[in-house]
Sequence to fold (274 residues):
Amino acid sequence: MTNRENLYLSPIHNLSLLEHLIFIIKLIFFIVLFVFLIIFSFSLGKIINSVQKWLPVIFNRMLLWVLSIKVEIIGEIDQSKKNNLFISNHLSYLDIPILGSRFPIRFVAKSEVESWPLFGFLAKKSRSIFIRRNKTDSFNQKTKILDVLSSHEKVFIFPEGTTSDGNRVLDFKSSSFSSVENQNFIIQPIVIVYSDLNGIPINRWLRPMIAWYGDMDLKPHLSKLVALISIKVKLFYLEPVNAQNFKNRKDLSKYLEDQIRKVYSNALSKKLAK
Fold:
C-alpha cells in the first residue's frame, strides 16, 4: 500500500528521457562556462575588482538556470541595494545561489566550510567571510565583519546559525548582530519561501526535498534535487531597519526574528489553505 509520504513524493520520479537530456545539455554547458569563468577570474580578477565581485553573481544565475529554479521577488529589491547588512531565514544550500544571484554580496560562513571539497573552493571564490563560531573568537568575528561593512561592501548573515527543516524559523542568535550593534548600518531582512516543486505546492512531506538539515547526507539529497524538473521560490524583501535605532543587539535580533517568522508563517499558512 502506498503511504501518504510516498504519494506526495511521487511527482519527482516522473522525469522523461527528453527532460533528462535537456538537463545533461544544460549541465555540460554550465561546466564549460564555469571553467571559463574560473580561468577568467584568475587572469583578470586581481586586475579588475568588479570582475571579482560579479563573477559569483554570474555563477549563481547560471546555477539557477541549470536547476530550473525560478525566483519571484516581492518587495523593493532596488531600494535594498543601498543597504549594508542582509539577513534571512535558512533552509538549504540552495539559499546561497538564490540570494547571491541578485547583486554582489559576501556571505558569512563558518570556518570549517573553507576546507570542504568543492564547496570550500566556491565559497572562497565568492569572497565569503569565514569565522570561528566560538566565544573566545567573538571579538575577531565582530571586527572582521565590521571592517567589511565599513569598506562599503554588502554582507549576508543567516542569524539562525544553521538550516531548519523548513516548517518553522529557528531562534536567531543575537551574536550575529554584534558587528552592527548601535552602529549606523541599514539591515535588509529577507524571507525565503520555497513554494512549488515540479509545479506542485510544497508541503511538509515535500519540504525535505529542498530543506537540508540535521544529519542529512549531502550526496543523496543533492542527487534527488538535481532530478527535479523545476523549483519555484519567493523572496520577500521586508522593510529595512537601522541598527542604531535599537537599544542593543538582543532587541535588534528579536525584532528581526519576529518580522521574518511572521511573514514566513503567513506564507506557509496561505499555501496550506489552497
About this structure: The mean pLDDT is 85. Residues 17-44 form the longest helix (28 residues).
